[in-house]
Amino acid sequence: MATRSLRSTIGGFAALAMLGAGASAAWAESAAEIAVREAQQYSGTEINVFWEAGLQALGPQNFSGPMWEELTGIKVNIIEAQHDEMFPKMLQEHRGGTGAYDVLNVVPAWMGDMVRAGAVEPLDAYVDKYGYREELEDIGDVYRENQMRIGDTIYGFPDDGDVLILYYRKDIFEEMGLSVPTTWDEFYEVSKAITDAKAPEVYGAGFMRVRGLLHYFYQERARNEGCKFFDAESMKATINGPGCVKALAGMVKDNTTMPPGVEQWGAIESLAAFNAGQIAMTQWWPPVGRWSAGYGTDDIAMQWVPPSVVAGKVGYALPPGGHPQLAAGFAMAVSSSSKNKDAAYLYIQWINSIDISHQRVQLPYALRDPFRKSHFSSPEYQSRWPDAKHYLEAAEKGAVSGLLDLSIINTFAYIDALAAGLQAVMGGGDPQAELDGVADKWDALTEKVGVDAQREAYMEWASKPAAYPGD
Predict the structure, then answer these.
(1) Does residue 426 fall inside a structural domain?
(2) What pLDDT is attached to residue 27?
(3) Is 258 helix (H, G, I), strand (E, B) or coil?
(4) DSSP bridge pairs for 316
(5) CATH, residue 77
(6) Rounded to whole angstroms, what are the CA distances from 191 to 34, 204, 254, 303, 421?
(7) Contact 295, 363 (CB under 8 A)
(8) Are strands 314-317 and 331-334 parallel, antiparallel or unpaired?
């Protein structure tokens, strides 16, 4: 976001603040305006905001943090942690009762465990006190209905429209007379056709296969192939059932149409290969749509992004099966141990609001993706590059038909066991045998948690409209 835009936004909010609360009767205040006005009573205080390290943290460091301090006098301190360290650190802080964190970034799949631990503050009273309920309706249905509440209580505001979109080379597809695949069998055939015709210069596809990321792609594909994670009555793991095995075997087969060594690819490898024109398809979070078009990559914070030679040649679509993974994402929450709960709440209402979130999701570097209905329809965002409108259309379709990450009691342990089995298969292991081993580990975890307690948690998750396709 340009400095001039930041100053303009601050100036607009400052002018409103000088008018005072008495002027609000002349027009309806937005949620952002209310937050600024109410937060000024806490001027001089500091709030500690726990955020994922790296590009994610640049948003509050460079944009929302300085603006909030200018508008309210509240200083925002950013505490960073690597993604896989965030959940345990938040729980450790809560158990220690230190009050070291005020604002939390919580991956929705962790929220149930955070609530059961008492680590996050219920937000309904704040929502009503500070007039935010109406603006919450603008959040995309799949995020609002599935990632905001545990039971009937609001614990976090969906703040990141993470969804795995399929990116493909329009020029290659047109040249070869290919159609965008809508099933995984079609995907293999298309990817193989491109590889057979163009490798080693261009391979048909290249996906992330590294441990820690692969489970997102597997959870998506397995459910699109009919896999269910558990038997709802017995709570025996069914992660080794026919659809589950078929999906994993298909992923191994697809690897044969991808560049050598793809089994070791993470996010950067797939991004670099796609931007360099070395692969014709990839599946990634929404930032690839921006970066492959060259949007924002001239920003100094974006110098790490490989230069794109495919700008103007990229198409956006739902992945095969039509139900993409709502992989990871973040919800903004208030720590139950915070000593500044109102100030912390007002900050998350402000950054999550229609007014401010529109700016944040267009930052080239911040990795916050569109999550509001008004983001997808924004004329400003649709004008950012020639195909931005089609990009937003694909992201919105994913936000309608997407699938939730598994979220039960002790989710971390279940996903870790799954990740180990998937990694073994990428290394040459047999899909059925490895998933049988995962099922055994899941059953042991369920016995440790308690079958009845886990059944209740699973049924709460499975009852959500985005848990399984068509449910």
Answers:
(1) yes
(2) 62
(3) coil
(4) 167
(5) 3.40.190.10
(6) 52, 4, 8, 30, 25
(7) no
(8) unpaired
pLDDT (tens digit per residue) in 405-460: 999 999 999 999 999 999 999 999 999 999 999 999 999 999 999 999 999 999 99
CA end-to-end span of the chain, whole Å?
40
User: Do 131 and 230 share a domain, yes or no?
Assistant: no
Please tell me whether residues 99 and 35 are part of one structural domain. yes
Q: What is the pLDDT of residue 299?
A: 80
State which residues form the domain around 250: 162-327+394-471
For 197-255, how does the pLDDT look when each residue is reduced to its tens digit (9 = 90+)?
Answer: 999 999 999 999 999 899 999 999 999 999 999 999 999 999 999 999 999 999 999 99
Count of CB atoms within 10 A of residue 81's CB?
A: 17
Residue type, 293: A
Q: Are both 187 and 321 inside the same structural domain?
A: yes
**Strand 165-169 and strand 103-106: pairing?**
unpaired
Give tens-digit pLDDT for 257-307: 999 999 999 999 999 999 999 999 999 999 999 999 999 888 887 888 888
Whether the pTM exceeds 0.85: the reply is yes
The CB-side HSE value for 374 (13 A sphere, CA atoms) comes to 13
Q: Which residue has the tokens 């962790």?
A: 110
Residue carrying the six token digits 């937060």? 39
104 vs 35: CA distance, rounded Å:
18
Query: Mean pLDDT, to the nearest integer, of 23-40?
Result: 82
Total tally of structural domains belonging to the chain: 2
Domain for residue 375, yes or no? no
